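Hi there,

I know you've been waiting on this one. I reran it after we fixed the sequence typo, so this is the corrected version. Both the input and the resulting structure follow.
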Amino acid sequence: MFLGIDIGTSGVKAVVIDTHGSVVGQGTAALTVQRPHPLWSEQDPDSWWAATTAAVQAIDADVRRAVRGIGLAGQMHGATLLGADDKPLRPAILWNDGRSAAECAELEAATPLFQSVGGNIVMPGFTAPKLAWVRKHEPDVFAATKLVLLPKDYVRLLMTGEKASDMSDSAGTLWLDVAGRTWSNDLLAACGLDVSQMPALVEGPQTTGRLSAQVAELWGMPQVPVAGGGGDNAAGAAGVGVVKDGDALLSLGTSGVIFVANDAFRPNPARAVHAFCHCLPDMWHQMAVHLSAASCIDWVARLTGAAGAADLFARAEKAGPASGPELFLPYLSGERTPHNDAEVRGAFLRLDNDTGPERLAQAVLEGVAFALADGLDALRGAGTEVAKLSVIGGGARSRYWGATLAAALNTPLVYLQGGEVGPALGAARLAQIAVDGGSPAEVCVAPPVAHVIEPDAALVDRLAPKLAAFRDAYAHITPQNITPRSA
């Protein structure tokens, strides 16, 4: 059996699969995000470790004892700064933190190689501008930084004592030569860093060490090998068989992602499309990334007093698709694709006297779907063909939302058995390859199809005017257009 651990933003998920890829055990533990100032988003790195241990220990003891390998997945871009004693110097700055916009502009102007070699626009979400911010605003912390790790790789350090990271997660730092799959001295130097402060690079199915004796005893399993793993979206893709050129998925987690596997490095920074390494050797991928997806569901559920996501979906279904004029712009943490705007914020528009909780719920489902449609349009504008999308993540549980998504995207959605398990499944499969061998094509196969949601032509037509209004509304809610003017 093989254990996959996904260090997410809202929680840690641990999943055990057998050699046939079937899930035989799961455990979860919650995490919280701290926002001490506007635009900031942070977590205590040691909370990842406590949640990881809780999630693993939630799995049946007999299943844990049978584990033969572990793979890791995790939220990307988080800047975890360690001192000479390998202890965190400050809270980790997360992927949805927007404080470093000024540093992004400075890095872009000084080092054009970020787009050509790094393959991406410098955005506040990435790791590189976070370090530039720390260098400017917390110089003592920057001077003391001996190692920069991504979230899952800090957990790996505590598991094994090894300082390593896989290619897919490392590509999201903006310090990687993405085509060459190696650290770029030039991009590191632009941030005042060098390779000595980076972990060793490995491919996702490559072994990075073994579980320490202390952790093995704590978790009730042997000292098994630990695979490189992957960034959350790349690992999620491996879990559902998105491993060949042109394969694509839609991930509905805290953030929303459209992910397309590529057999070559194909950057397209002009429309804020991400181009990274896949977690599999000799593969890359493109992504359209939206900072708020299922997080909007949780937010509006709290806002309207719904009991949870399921209750919210039921309220939306009571209202029905395109049932009112309301528009929701889901930019609660800013946006990446296609706007690259860390400061824009969400909005409800076109409310009237008949607006109630049900129509607000429906507007949120539609708003997230419209933002994803913007991302798919950016991918297609880059020449990427997307014929269908496999759906993963917690948002995959709702068939009702699926109908709205399929219509807004005008693309068939393929729901896979166990697809809601997400990146932890792919991490476990990478562990299986590391221990037993086998090719990604043999091990990372798509799970059986649970159902397919085809876009309903009538609903596509009903949503089209709202999608057009949604796209027009962005220009009217940007900070420069809503800042009060002086008399």
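Quick highlight: The mean pLDDT is 93.

Best,
R. S.
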